[in-house]
Amino acid sequence: MSTTDFAHLSESGQARMVDVGEKTPTNRTARAEAYIDLGRQIAEQLRATGAIAKGNVVDTARIAGIMAAKQTSSLVPMCHPLLLDHISIDAEWEGDLLRIESCVRCTGTTGVEMEALTAVSVAALTVYDMCKSAGKGIEIRSVRLLEKTGGKSGSWQAESGRNN
Amino acid sequence: MSTTDFAHLSESGQARMVDVGEKTPTNRTARAEAYIDLGRQIAEQLRATGAIAKGNVVDTARIAGIMAAKQTSSLVPMCHPLLLDHISIDAEWEGDLLRIESCVRCTGTTGVEMEALTAVSVAALTVYDMCKSAGKGIEIRSVRLLEKTGGKSGSWQAESGRNN
Amino acid sequence: MSTTDFAHLSESGQARMVDVGEKTPTNRTARAEAYIDLGRQIAEQLRATGAIAKGNVVDTARIAGIMAAKQTSSLVPMCHPLLLDHISIDAEWEGDLLRIESCVRCTGTTGVEMEALTAVSVAALTVYDMCKSAGKGIEIRSVRLLEKTGGKSGSWQAESGRNN
Amino acid sequence: MSTTDFAHLSESGQARMVDVGEKTPTNRTARAEAYIDLGRQIAEQLRATGAIAKGNVVDTARIAGIMAAKQTSSLVPMCHPLLLDHISIDAEWEGDLLRIESCVRCTGTTGVEMEALTAVSVAALTVYDMCKSAGKGIEIRSVRLLEKTGGKSGSWQAESGRNN
Amino acid sequence: MSTTDFAHLSESGQARMVDVGEKTPTNRTARAEAYIDLGRQIAEQLRATGAIAKGNVVDTARIAGIMAAKQTSSLVPMCHPLLLDHISIDAEWEGDLLRIESCVRCTGTTGVEMEALTAVSVAALTVYDMCKSAGKGIEIRSVRLLEKTGGKSGSWQAESGRNN
Amino acid sequence: MSTTDFAHLSESGQARMVDVGEKTPTNRTARAEAYIDLGRQIAEQLRATGAIAKGNVVDTARIAGIMAAKQTSSLVPMCHPLLLDHISIDAEWEGDLLRIESCVRCTGTTGVEMEALTAVSVAALTVYDMCKSAGKGIEIRSVRLLEKTGGKSGSWQAESGRNN
Predict the structure, then answer these.
(1) Model-level pTM greater than 0.90?
(2) What is the C-alpha separation between F92 and F97, in angstroms, rounded?
């Protein structure tokens, strides 16, 4: 069997940054999500602090996620550097869960899936950091791609339900 | 109600890096884990490539995770810079799931939980990036702290089962 | 005449990072400020958007300043890396001026003046960036140290009035 | 009233990186300046050290400013990454003031004002750092844009006099 | 005599990032090599550890080199930021010497020679770091460009023999 | 045979950052050197430009090397972050060769050899970049450690001659 399904592996199985020089730049978008399960205790403490504290936890996470998306190719070894055209992050509470969703756009020769996933991952880590003094047992769950458009492989959408 | 449970928020709810100058340096450790659900299709393709490719996916992820742990305070806005004494990352396959576990140690005035969580998060993103050309629908699950020692709050261990 | 007044210059006038290895670690603090003159037009537009927009401009600047303080030794060539214990940034409106003040603390062998100044500089640049689409002619003014404590040279306070 | 004047704020006032994907790449330039008031005492000490020391202070600042311009999108949260075509920094003494001027060029979909302003800000911080052991009370003044060209909004020039 | 042969020096000899805005983007490639002389003792110890250890030293160096190539413009002050299309690193043993070779590709207005050289330099430093506990006297030798293609000056190849 | 001679490899041969938490902080120094062979043609062109250009090439390399030393743990995957107390870089011409020497000091639990080697490597790359428009065939040679002091293994000095 071969390694050809794994673009960042050479024929002999070594890691390399796959060549995208022959690809035509197209508009690319990706959306990703992450869930943070804060647990009942922390969620109630956060609600009790009122709008300002909740807002600042989310705003700090939003900015961290946007800044991290721009660092993706410094963090993930085989990612290509890209000139991102747009990054936004939304967050909404679902009971004791905080759902974070990112949207990333770029005109380039490779997709922005990893940028969208990095954005929600670091935003989720930031929520964790802002809340961890209030209690134990926070868990980041279901970091996944929701949708991508552009590129040779075209559009793709995740099935609607979370797997877990 | 107050914001005092949230160390990185001031009394008026603004984000700030909490003062750890009065704390005594102690030995700190943290272990964290992340699961990557590659799905049946990708897992089989990876197994079919043999030991070299599987090894290179995991080795690349291990190095990415170790390097990311050292960038934690650049990624997570309110994290303190720390001089990490040790970082290691292990990975093991559980069927179609890859489990990644990090261990981080430091002598300092604040814990290394975020470093251990950042290590597994970026290692998991790297596995995702190395495998995404082989199929859709990869999901990172259950990023969580397993154990911490050191500091005023002492030791803590997660309950054994994953929540999801 | 000699270069001995300039600690980062060698006797022959070459730049080098001055040796602080013999100095004893002490508690260090620094406070700095910067003024951003947004002009009447932008300030009124910002006031008209209400609390959320004003808050988000300031919150984004606060986080950018805190993160930049941690990057000081990567930006200013002869600055020593330091383990910062605390960083906070406050902002208040004085008519059409926004005043930003930083407070940085550390236990170390060299002071945190540059970290406090970098924090307010990057926070001010961020306010500029967030507001520049609304009008021209923004000016950052009077970036200066307000106070330092700790170290061999002891405490120092700026005279109260701004010079300009 | 609305947030539409503030491009980096969404309609609901949240920070996001505005989408520049639909804009056509054009040649962009920006020039910015900063003044550093070293005070009489330091300026005289620096003059007394002769050409080498003065040159090294300015050369170190020039390189720091050029390198910082390339980090703008890592420092200012909503700035887009850009491939800068050219960066230069000049410095001239006006009595006890050092005036720093940057020139930045790029072919892209968004302007380089923030890069030019970041360049002079970090160059000024570097002059501050190189001189601070010689005396207190240094002040960075009048960080502002001098000129921009390119892009939909076309050219703009600052009025000639400093405001302060 | 003039400074015109040195593109990163202005007419008055000051460092600046040369303007590449008028150049047409073309496909660029560069290959570079570095030799690491580990000495007899370390080479034998490494051989004695078997395939896994040797593989991990080289794999860690490969990933470090690929990641460093993407940081070239942050490390080398006058280098332009570039969107690299491809990076790969190979290594082969020649007795007690390890030869590292990089290949970098990009579509852009300036060449990728420095990226290829930075890749092998940091890969070589990483081999050094991974082996230095096993013995003294490691030496990195003959870091040089092997070949470049693209750009106004066209193709170039190094003469075949190492100079030393 | 075992991997115990290679501190950054685990018993099973996997890369990890060796644990230095049990080591006592001591004063550490390291000196390293690199030679850049510019070739006759470039060396003569550089001499013809006079003191300013030669000075600016070396000054830019010096600052690049100092800044790179502080990034060592971000570049070399298994290097520990360290608080460097001092960095200096000297350069001297030996005919058509430029010799660069770094000196790094730190109080810590691990040595600064890699920081000294990274400093001269990046300084040499910078000289290369500043001179490459003037001619082909530049070669970086003999990057090696000259001396180290401090730590359990004590002092060490290289033999005087270069090996190549």
Answers:
(1) yes
(2) 9
